[in-house]
Design brief:
heterodimer, A: 443 residues, alpha/beta, Rossmann fold, Coagulation Factor XIII, Chain A, domain 1, B: 278 residues, mainly alpha
């Protein structure tokens, strides 16, 4: 460990730390009632008829993993994958059907913030009650009380009843209790997105701090891949009740993102079928609208980018094509033709070729999105988008050229900022190609 | 071995911490927003007592003819009020506290115990009121008073047992609340609370037998014991004086024990599933 630190890599080897939470081949299923009524009568009727009144839903199957002391362990997974159930099993709220769970030390669960908070009690009383429910005696809460109040920034409100708090204040108080509670293992479920920006930053600092503490272990369930990458020392992905992956947070979060994309793709296909086979953005009025690259999708930018727009539109009346260029990495719309500029002459199914110069741009990834528009009858300036070429109908391309930089959108060839008084600034030419011209211009 | 002792101590310290937190909160919240506050826990049984005293002692002239009868009546009503309060609150406690049980792990019998302890505190206050009345009506206390804690403990045990039992059932069958409301009335009238036991016994024959039978009910037995030991050892018949057979004498005590065992057993067996079932 010391060696690793000397080499500048700050990463503890947790596998040698003692195992503090051991989950051993656990399974869990739930009875889902199929009969609505709960009552003696229904129970008696079901019993005589031999109806079970429920069906089994297997939520977790054969889950095993160990968490070592000092780890910041992330659990990710899609909704309904069994994360929360697993958390409740770890917190001993549910009991596993098979397998066992061993916990060493005091585990403080936060399945939900502010459990047992009562609006009729003051902030102070609620802190003590919440503490008691988590198993802290009055004296123990005394010891952490100031810390909690400081962190929540609610010094002036502690003797107010909770019902007079704003919802943000309530959440802040609850969250402060959660993270200032002096447990050995902290179990947090989806609680990171609370409070305003300043409070968020504070929490972020706290997590970074607790990550360094070798005695505190944190188990975090979240959807937010950024916080997994930022805080977790190890992560696990659960899908459909099984462990899909355990390992370093980068790999796991990538896998999670991939799984999400797949699911989205599947959902999109289903949506398309529901729309009657038309791709996203299109319909029976405009069944075809496609932007197709003619030039290579990875280009140098020295030649104009050439692409085709294929359309089919048979409704009577004028119609226009509007083409927008989106900057995928930097965000924002780089260029737009305007809605009523490119008036199309022919109805029916045709292809039109366009060309766009790229010399202005640095390296980047762009997407061309075409829409087919008709003028509004009541507003001569407005148009109505009949069809939009989204997703697979849009056209993506990238500019890759040594002469370009990566950071800004516009290259030095297109734009440069020059001092108005040359006495104050010396323009230092750099090695970027194109600067020679700038230097020339400055003279 | 040492480790085991420490673990047990830890376990019950947690339970104790939670219990204190819940009882304190409940008590704070119970009379919040009312002008008279805690005074209500004294006023309520007192007003109830006035009503019953007027109806039964004055209009129906039901009395055992002793000057202590009104205090005995008050004591009976207070004791029964403890039973109804803890069962009616405790019965729903697991479901009412469902949000807690589903979010954190803690010994969940505590929610039932806290409901009964809340009622026990009210009972304690009421006993002080009874004491004041007893002093005012010049009751002569005897050494029997020393047995009072045992009687109260037994009353608490049988009440807790019933509450645990019904709280468990209530999670699965909400009907229990309505059934208990009726059964509670039945027990109340089948028990010598508003009418003196001696009044029934004096009528002889079948009534006398029924009165004796009523004493086998642990509630009747303990409440009679409480009255006997606290206020009127001379005039209040108890099971210990009415029967000579020890088997019969001990029946209500054994019933209490059995009920307590059953309550704890069923509650423990099902409590693991409460968080899922609710």
């Amino acid at each position: 460990m010391a060696q690793q630190q000397e080499t500048g890599v700050f990463r503890r080897d947790f596998s040698k730390a003692p195992v503090i939470l051991s989950v051993d081949h656990i399974s869990k299923s739930f009875k889902l009632p199929t009969e609505q009524a709960t009552g003696l009568k229904q129970a008696a009727i079901n019993w005589t008829r031999g109806i079970k009144g429920f069906r089994r839903l297997s939520v977790l199957r054969d889950i095993s993993f160990d968490v070592h002391q000092g780890e910041f362990f992330g659990i990710v997974g899609r909704n309904g994958g069994g994360k929360s159930t697993l958390l409740k099993l770890i917190s001993q709220i549910y009991y596993p059907e098979t397998g066992s769970i061993h916990v060493t030390g005091k585990l403080v669960p936060f399945i939900e913030l502010g459990v047992g908070f009562n609006p009729e009690l003051t902030g102070r009383e609620n802190v003590y009650l919440n503490g008691a429910l988590l198993g802290f005696t009055h004296e123990q809460v005394d010891a952490m009380y100031d810390d909690i109040v400081d962190f929540a920034e609610l010094q002036d409100f502690m003797d107010q009843k909770l019902k007079n708090y704003s919802s943000g204040m309530q959440v802040r108080l609850a969250f402060s209790v959660a993270i200032k509670a002096q447990g050995d293992i902290l179990v947090l479920d989806e609680v990171l997105a609370v409070g305003d920006e300043a409070f968020q930053r504070k929490c972020s600092d706290f997590f970074t701090e607790i990550k360094k503490d070798p005695t505190k272990t944190v188990i975090l369930v979240t959807h937010d891949m950024n916080s997994v990458k930022k805080y977790c020392t190890r992560a696990m992905m659960i899908s459909d009740g099984e462990v899909e992956a355990v390992g370093d947070p980068e790999t796991v979060s990538q896998q999670y993102t991939l799984a999400n994309l797949e699911a989205e793709h599947k959902a999109e296909q289903e949506r398309q079928e529901a729309r009657g086979g038309y791709p996203n953005g299109l319909n029976e009025h405009c069944p075809i609208l496609r932007t197709i690259p003619v030039s290579s999708p990875v280009c140098t930018g020295e030649e104009p980018f050439v692409f085709d727009v294929e359309y089919q539109y048979d409704d009577p009346g004028d119609f226009y094509l509007a083409i927008a260029v989106h900057d995928v990495r930097r965000g924002g719309i780089t260029y737009d033709t305007g809605a009523k500029v490119l008036k199309v002459k022919e109805h029916g199914h045709h292809t039109i070729r366009f060309s766009m110069p790229l010399g202005l741009f640095n390296n980047g990834e762009f997407r061309i999105i075409t829409s087919l528009r008709t003028p509004l009858s009541n507003n001569p300036k407005g148009t109505d988008a009949v069809g939009v070429a989204l997703d697979e109908n849009s056209c993506s391309f990238a500019i890759r050229n040594k002469r370009n930089e990566n950071y800004a959108l516009l290259s030095q060839r297109a734009l440069h900022i020059m001092p108005m008084d040359a006495d104050q600034i010396t323009v230092v030419p750099n090695t970027t190609p194109g600067w020679e011209d700038v230097a020339e211009a400055a003279k | 071995m040492n480790n085991l002792v420490k673990r047990i101590a830890d376990r019950y310290r947690y339970a104790w911490t939670v219990l204190r937190g819940l009882v304190k909160t409940d008590f704070k919240l119970r009379y919040q927003g009312s002008f008279l506050g805690v005074a209500w826990s004294v006023l309520k049984p007192l007003m109830l007592f006035c009503v019953m005293y007027i109806v039964f002692a004055k209009f129906l002239r039901m009395s055992d003819g002793t000057p202590t009868y009104s205090v005995v009546l008050l004591l009976g009503i207070s004791s029964w009020q403890f039973v109804t309060e803890s069962t009616n609150v405790g019965l729903r406690s697991v479901v009412d506290r469902g949000d807690l049980l589903r979010k954190i792990h803690f010994p969940n019998y505590i929610v039932v115990v806290s409901a009964t302890v809340g009622a026990l505190i009210s009972f304690g206050i009421n006993l002080i009121v009874v004491l004041v009345f007893a002093l005012a009506s010049k009751v002569r206390f005897t050494w029997w008073v020393l047995l009072l804690p045992i009687n109260v403990a037994q009353l608490y045990a049988v009440t807790l047992a019933l509450t645990l039992l019904m709280a468990t059932l209530y999670v699965y069958f909400r009907d229990i609340a309505h059934i208990w409301e009726v059964v509670q009335q039945l027990i109340f009238y089948a028990m010598p609370i508003i009418y003196p036991l001696s009044y029934v016994m004096k009528r002889g024959g079948l009534y006398s037998d029924l009165a004796q039978l009523a004493l086998l009910n642990p509630f009747a037995q303990t409440i009679q014991d409480i009255r006997h030991n606290f206020i009127a050892p001379d005039t209040q018949p108890t099971i210990w004086g009415e029967f000579s057979n020890w088997g019969i004498k001990l029946t209500p005590v054994i019933l209490t024990g059995l009920l307590l065992w059953l309550g704890i057993y069923l509650f423990k067996r099902n409590s693991r599933k409460f968080a899922e079932v609710m």
